[in-house]
Design brief:
single chain; mainly alpha; globular
């Protein structure tokens, strides 16, 4: 995970090709929040459609919620029983 304003790496995990990127999202988010500290908390996450999973939106919606933001065209349609936080982020 990278701070887009400073280009500083805030979280890093090296894996082999058997590990999908979205599986590392929550550990990287935790690592990033620890590295940022309380004075510089994560307030927005930008990710592509590979991270469009209810459990990831739900992880973002705990505690002080950073806004999950992606280009709308990359998001799948909202389905019944999905993440309410995802629906809020998508605007539906």
């Amino acid at each position: 995970m990278i701070d887009v304003e400073t280009n500083q790496a805030l979280g890093l995990e090296i894996t082999d090709e058997s590990v999908q990127d979205d599986q590392m999202f929550i550990p990287l988010l935790d690592q990033t929040q620890q590295n940022c500290g309380e004075e510089h908390s994560v307030y927005r996450v930008l990710a592509d459609g590979a991270y469009d999973r209810n459990e990831l939106f739900n992880a973002l919606n705990t505690g002080e919620s950073p806004l999950a933001s992606k280009p709308g065209s990359m998001l799948r349609p909202i389905r019944p029983g999905g993440s309410p936080y995802r629906a809020e982020c998508v605007g539906n």
